[in-house]
């Protein structure tokens, strides 16, 4: 069960500013990373560290300037070919769901794209709503009628409905209140035990990341300066930058 | 809530909060009804020659007076309303379809598509409407079809720009990214996610394009480039009436006032829809 | 440095647009019913003259050469020859340009003088639904020039009140007479401008008022007058500049109907008469000049953006 | 020496689309002179509303229904525009959450500083003020536009503006929320030092419990538009007497043991349609009893702080036991 889900080798992403090829800026520099099934890798860094860019590379939304991203041991291919195998949960819960569609319809979409039959879709959508703790009637509600935490649960349900092998959580709890954050963090951990997906948990909040991840990679100015089991971050990590991040938790 | 009750409530709130727009809505509905039901209304026969004195002033029998052939001008103006509305609606519908399609493509695909569509819009935008009218009249000769073409050419660039910017903002939202990651094709994303979320802005632009369309139609027809006799639109009636402007001003004024009311009502309804979609909350400075 | 990096692409875009416009006009004129060539040559022309004109316009060569030839002659200022007067069309346009320019200046001045202040006042007044700004904006934008012009002509034909319709006199020769003729059409054109600028300014001001730095200014206890003068106006300027330049571009090249109504001898009237006389060289030149004016005016507004908003051109999204 | 700020029985309502919601449900609060008071609360708790109401900087759709707000004896609720303007200019200093949107994007920093200081300050005076806010290259900062500054520098400019006219009270709305963790601590230290140098009081609105414990003398916890617990920071954070405060501390990730599970607060923050007749926290409270659902607890002193809970003693006692258990 511990096959590698996502593997990044020497990934470099260069942004070229300006119309006539202005100065180049390396958002990600020579990153090597791999995530196994059932494991959550926390990716911590401040704004501008390149963590979101790396997340987009892992999702196949952004082709790296250099380096190879392989998925399940094979070249990534296209999102179309990989449909149903990976998904994403994003930060702002007010835009996580299409306001015009009922929650059930939003969660059903990945199954429609996979070509699953209507009967099977209805069954799996109902099941996934229960497993995220939103049974009885939430399926037919519109996102506008839900609280931030509930909307985030629906987007997690959508991310899980095709039982993908890999999920990226990009600042998925940062916009939530502290009390609701804990609910969603626990939900992510419980669902990982149940479905065994590999996860990349991107956040600027070391406390939340440390709680939910098995391993943590600290990113600073496009490079990974430390990659260690999360227990290390309850004590004193090696790299000075990691220690500085820890100081804000004291 | 049934759609009927929903619109009823919205109308009620509109009447209380925004009397101006409500007035606009009432005028628009009245004009459309009169335009559609004209022939069955007791307004007189638009074609009956010498129904009254030639160039007679407004009177009970002929509320809008009579034209140079003694025809009552009221039923002719009513016929004109229908022609002007119909012509503008046809033109604006073409604009909406083409404008939304290319605007959405440019806003969603970005890159080269965006540049091509933007340059295309810039090229069309460079021609003021009436100048396009001259060119089209030279090409296809005056008439309803060229009027429709001119209105579309003049309003498509505006439409593309608005739809493009709205699409840009919607495409950046989480639910679009999530659908892309799930492997949805660009077409599915546009139809299921983007279109329903920009339809509000499209409708607002539609009303504004309608009012621009009616201005263009009346100007073209006045210059003899638009609707030609025997067909009649508010613009062509303005043209006919202007020949007798100083001696029988009621011809031009009646058609002109009705045309202005039509355009104003469409503008006001557009404002109301725009405020309903994203209310602009100002702020007191104290 | 910032400006060059920002303007270079803008200039490139303007050139591409100009090329596109000229291709469009060139092709349009070629598909005129009855064939551009026949119309250009006219039915009564002797064979030799026909050959000479064909050679002059390169009508025998493939379309691409014709276009290159046509474009090259344009760049040298040769906008073709009027079929009626056989004189270069460009001279007539240059002779009439000041008239249209004067009309445009009057309309723009009135539109700015009323549109901006009313727009700011109405915007600052905020949500007042029945705001006077909205009423003026709605009415002004809804009365077509044709209707307003006709109404003014009728009123002043009955009680002349110093104004005169027709009989244009250049400002240099007789300023008062000139004003008597030009004020009415100028005002007619300005009404739509007032409404357009008023609505845009009002929306821009209301939008700026919701921005964070206005809250900071209020929290600092700045006087409302100062907040408007120093913070609101400049931040609301870009949308207003956009609409003003677009409107001015329209005035310079699209105000045909007012020139026809008030028989003002500007380029609009000249182009319109060109169409009536099927003198397509005039129509072609008129359309091209209108588009070129519009494109260059938009270039001006791009430069103004960079001057007003320091973020423009540095890639920071506004 | 009366308190600098006294808020009594304040009710503020928000007119949403069609529905009215209560921002504050007869809230009580006092800020002593020279004190740093932190107001902690989640979305909908009313913390921003009460903080901003001190300077009556409320959004247009907010209405003060009833209650009084006095700053240094001046009533804010019925102050006319001019009096309010002078109060803000001379006695209040504001620091906002997002420094990038709080500065005029089209105006250089120097001119904006002049607006804050008022009158005709010399360049050196402005530079000195910026240096006090620990901006080491004031000349460059003065010449730049807001978008040319980093988040941290922009926030320091705003802090300099806030203390420009040595206000009696600084109101900081989530001052470090949009800053990176590395500079958050330094910016808070600067703010605290400048407050002390001016002898001003400060109100900090925040949802970050750790930040509060290091920088505030007292802390007020808000829930459902009311102050449910207020007292010395150490007392309240180490031995909370209100079930919500305790649950909030337990739910926050950061001080749990590796592998230890966080205790989330089930349900979601309340939306108040009208005055509360029962304890607003009752639906989510772990120790709720019938009495909590019938009558609304009033503020009363318990274990050296003020609490709105019928069973505060029980909560205070319970936390002190688990506290010992945890520290062994």
Automatic annotation (TrEMBL), chain A:
InterPro entries: AAA+_ATPase, ABC_transp_ATP-bind, ABC_transporter-like_ATP-bd, ABC_transporter-like_CS, P-loop_NTPase. Gene3D superfamilies: P-loop containing nucleotide triphosphate hydrolases. It comes from the Bacteria. Belongs to the ABC transporter superfamily. It holds the Pfam family ABC_tran. GO terms for molecular function: ATP binding; ATP hydrolysis activity. The keyword Kinase does not apply. Residues 6-246 form the ABC transporter domain. The lineage of its organism: Bacteria, Pseudomonadati, Pseudomonadota, Alphaproteobacteria, Hyphomicrobiales. Keywords: ATP-binding, Nucleotide-binding, Transport. This is ATP-binding cassette domain-containing protein. One of its GO terms (biological process) is transmembrane transport.
TrEMBL record, chain B:
The keyword Cell membrane applies. It comes from Flavimaribacter sediminis. GO terms for biological process: transmembrane transport. InterPro entries: BP-dependent_transpt_permease, MetI-like, MetI-like_sf. The keyword Transmembrane helix applies. This is ABC transporter permease. It comes from the Bacteria. Its main location: membrane. One of its GO terms (cellular component) is plasma membrane. The chain crosses the membrane at residues 20-41, 85-109, 121-139, 145-163, 198-223, 243-264. It is found in: Cell membrane. Belongs to the binding-protein-dependent transport system permease family. CDD domains: TM_PBP2. Keywords: Cell membrane, Membrane, Transmembrane, Transmembrane helix, Transport.
TrEMBL record, chain C:
CDD domains: TM_PBP2. It is found in: Cell membrane. It holds the Pfam family BPD_transp_1. Residues 97-301 form the ABC transmembrane type-1 domain. Coiled coil: none annotated. The chain crosses the membrane at residues 12-32, 103-124, 136-159, 179-198, 236-262, 282-308. The keyword Zinc does not apply. It is a multi-pass membrane protein. The keyword Cell membrane applies. One of its GO terms (cellular component) is plasma membrane. InterPro entries: BPD_transp_1_N, MetI-like, MetI-like_sf. GO terms for molecular function: dipeptide transmembrane transporter activity. Keywords: Cell membrane, Membrane, Transmembrane, Transmembrane helix, Transport. Belongs to the binding-protein-dependent transport system permease family. PANTHER family: DIPEPTIDE TRANSPORT SYSTEM PERMEASE PROTEIN DPPB-RELATED (PTHR43163:SF6). This is ABC transporter permease. It comes from Flavimaribacter sediminis. The lineage of its organism: Bacteria, Pseudomonadati, Pseudomonadota, Alphaproteobacteria, Hyphomicrobiales.
From TrEMBL, chain D:
Residues 5-249 form the ABC transporter domain. Keywords: ATP-binding, Cell inner membrane, Cell membrane, Membrane, Nucleotide-binding, Translocase, Transport. One of its GO terms (biological process) is peptide transport. One of its GO terms (molecular function) is ATP binding. Pfam families: ABC_tran, oligo_HPY. It is found in: Cell inner membrane. Transmembrane segments: none annotated. It is a peripheral membrane protein. One of its GO terms (cellular component) is plasma membrane. Its main location: membrane. InterPro entries: AAA+_ATPase (IPR003593), ABC_Ni/Peptide_Import (IPR050388), ABC_transporter-like_ATP-bd (IPR003439), ABC_transporter-like_CS (IPR017871), Oligopep_ABC_C (IPR013563), P-loop_NTPase (IPR027417). NCBIfam families: oligo_HPY. Belongs to the ABC transporter superfamily. This is ABC transporter ATP-binding protein. It comes from Flavimaribacter sediminis.
